[in-house]
């Protein structure tokens, strides 16, 4: 029998420093509430599924966290405060504009033995750092990291529950690529699986869908945006509509693996909008996340105004 969401959360360990992280999240939300700001939880990157308790091996997925990192920047631009729930090694907002992945390649040592940014990178770093520091000084961005599926789901619940007092001012933007399969603790070997045991057969259980308690219990008044990723275009819209019908949340962003960086569908109960970048947009470096966030902000404002009538 499939596990319920309650059993799943009861039976899996909480991530390291869970209480500390939960407190930080609550304080961040309270600060934004006092400042009367909209708050969005952006989830980003893929979850890992450990194969052993003392984990050497785990299953992972393709997501690098571009969608979440880029969307975070555009939400901040539109005046939202952001809780960025991200895979520990996922792409980060702002840092993605830094021209070199190895920070040491950006730096140089002067004759007087000071460390300085190389002149050719100064302008770009100044620009990125200025924006980042403004965001940090105004306390508009809180980054919370996860690695495993259970870390993610435990923290997703903590963030959602913390957002409850924000009511319809809160947006949940669930762009993380979340595993649908896992090995329960009581079926997981403790030690590293030995190759001397021959070919490995894995039996994975279904992960309960957390959208259900999230919408019904954790943040019932929030504006919830989930994602639907498919590889077969014939399934995309029908799966998105099924999700809306089943979970009764506001929006599904439907995307195909191969075209996700240039086109998506914004699906509501009543509408299906195709959002895409033109060739000229792509040439000019425009990003689809800017269009997605513009569209969602409009939907969110409408949602708040209807709810407030
Ligand atoms: O990070 P990038 O490389 O930029 O890629 C971005 C993306 C393709 C990962 C992103 O755009 C995307 O589509 N993310 C959602 C992928 C996904 O998990 O889809 P799904 O069909 O498995 O799940 C649908 C929804 O159910 C998701 O919003 C998820 O949060 C939710 N879910 C999933 C599993 C689970 N146990 N409980 C859930 O509630």
Automatic annotation (TrEMBL):
Q: Which UniProt keywords apply?
A: Ligase
Q: Which PANTHER family match?
A: CORNICHON-RELATED (PTHR12290)
Record has Zinc as a keyword:
no
Residues of the DNA/pantothenate metabolism flavoprotein C-terminal domain: 164-262
Domain of life from the UniProt record: Eukaryota
Q: What is its EC number?
A: 6.3.2.51
Q: Name the family the entry cites.
A: Belongs to the PPC synthetase family.
Q: Which GO terms describe its biological process?
A: coenzyme A biosynthetic process
Task: State what protein this is by name.
Answer: PPCS
| Matches recorded under Pfam families | DFP (PF04127)
**InterPro entries linked to this entry:** CoaB-like_sf, DNA/pantothenate-metab_flavo_C
Q: Which GO terms describe its molecular function?
A: ligase activity
Q: Specify whether tRNA processing is a keyword of the entry.
A: no
Broadest EC class assigned to this enzyme: ligase
Q: Which organism is it from?
A: Mytilus coruscus
